[in-house]
Specification:
Blueprint lengths: L7 E7 L16 H4 L1 E5 L5 E5 L2 E3 L11 E2 L5 H9 L3 H5 L1 E2 L7 H11 L1 E7 L13 H18 L8 E3 L8 H13 L4 E3 L17 H9 L3 E5 L7 H6 L13 H6 L3 H13 L2 H4 L5 E4 L6 H14 L14 H8 E4 L6 H8 L5 E2 L15 H6 L5 H16 L3
Parallel strand pairs: 1-7, 7-8, 9-10, 10-11, 11-12, 12-13
Antiparallel strand pairs: 2-3, 3-4, 5-6
Helix pairs in contact: 5-6, 6-7
Length: 398
């Protein structure tokens, strides 16, 4: 079978923050309780902290001298850790392309990557700790200003960095949307789940915010992260969230980090008839895998019929939920996903986008390796779509 060797669009790549990323623009009055910083705590573990609160999931990830797990070598890194050699033999120094835009472009040229979506680094672990709406909005704004300085929101039409926005305070969300759009953002990163107000994010209450993104054709990304809205649900099972990944239970992995948050979030937007109101908005699931999609599409279409005479918050859908999904949603697959099976079950490869997760350990060493890992039994046309065409089409404004 032929193998695709053309240009690549990477739907999941990351940066590593420079040391002042969290402090450069943070207001003085927030420094005591909201400064995000790495330190060795009383437990002797080097981890990220929000004020004095330890972000457990970051414990042991970086070393005090700035070394990180090797890109695309998770299995080898975990094996070395099990043997007690993780920090000695497997850690690597961060390279300039992990921290600076122009160096990343050179790395992309080396990888034959034409364009990419770029997400935050250690900051991806922080949103669940921003439990004060006003302070949280300022923390995110300070971070977004740093991202704009260092990476831009659209760097040479090749690197599309995704600033972070929260709906915890609507007026702040609107101001942040205006700021990022004014500065060229093509995508924003948001947390999965309902708003803190006990509302669907597709509730008309937020339409002023979504109207801004719709007019600017901004893409909305839901990247894997702490689905903190499930915290109380986990508690009734005797389970905890915001724990170290190395100590996290299988139950939380399955229901707190797996497909449940993304399935609930995307289906909620669809059932609230969101895309009829905002047809220019597309949404992307990043680093949640894709094997949950076939069952979700079947289930959505089925319950649409079951609820035909039921309550539809924004009116009955005029077409199948699965059709709406395929038109408005992209999904970044894991390299370990059964992509052949997923395509066969859904009848389409149009919505699947590759992601390298570079420079994190969980992905592939180089974006091209995604084909061998995940698509060796797919046709050349399917490989081209997933590796390049779907991502380009997803980011196209019209």
């Amino acid at each position: 079978m032929q193998t695709y060797n053309g240009p690549i669009f990477d739907g999941d790549s990351h940066l590593y923050e420079t040391p002042d990323a969290f402090t450069r623009y943070l207001p003085k009055e927030l420094e005591k309780d909201w400064t995000i910083h790495f330190k060795t705590g009383a437990d002797n573990e080097y981890a990220l902290y929000v004020g004095e609160r330890k972000v457990e999931i970051t414990g042991g990830y970086m070393t005090p001298d700035g070394k990180v797990p090797p890109p695309g070598n998770l299995k080898e890194w975990l094996r070395a850790m099990k043997e007690g050699k993780g920090e000695v033999d497997m850690r690597v120094d961060m390279t300039p392309d992990m921290m600076h835009a122009e160096a990343r472009l050179k790395k992309m040229d080396e990888f034959n990557v034409e364009g990419c979506l770029l997400y935050c680094g250690n900051m991806v672990t922080v949103p669940s700790f921003l439990d004060d709406a006003k302070a949280g909005a300022q923390v995110l704004h300070a971070y977004n200003r740093w991202m704009l300085d260092e990476w831009h929101f659209n760097y040479k039409d090749r690197i599309y960095s995704a600033p972070l926005i929260s709906l915890a305070d609507l007026d702040d969300a609107i101001r942040e949307a205006e700021f990022v759009i004014k500065n060229g953002a093509r995508a924003v990163l948001m947390s999965m789940g309902p708003s803190v107000h006990g509302r669907s994010p597709a509730d008309p209450y937020y339409d002023r915010f979504w109207s801004l993104l719709n007019e600017a054709h901004v893409r909305v990304v839901f990247h894997v992260g702490e689905a903190i809205y499930l915290k109380h649900h986990m508690a009734v099972w005797g389970e905890k969230m915001q724990e170290s990944r190395l100590r996290q239970s299988a139950f939380v992995w399955m229901h707190g980090y797996s497909e449940r948050p993304v399935v609930e979030t995307l289906s909620n937007f669809i059932f609230w008839n969101f895309f009829a109101r905002f047809p220019n908005i597309k949404m992307l699931s990043a680093e949640n895998g894709c094997e949950w999609v076939p069952n979700m599409l079947v289930k959505m279409d089925k319950v649409r019929g079951m609820a035909k005479m039921g309550y539809w918050p924004q009116g009955q859908l005029t077409e199948r939920p699965s059709t709406i999904f395929k038109r408005h949603v992209g999904v970044v697959a894991y390299p370990e996903d059964d992509i052949r099976g997923v395509i066969d079950q859904t009848g389409s490869a149009e919505w699947i986008i590759m992601g390298s997760d570079y420079p994190h350990a969980e992905g592939v060493p180089e974006p091209k390796d995604f084909i061998e890992e995940a698509m060796g039994n797919c046709s050349l046309e399917e490989q081209r779509k997933v590796m390049y065409e779907n991502g380009k089409k997803f980011m196209a404004s019209i």
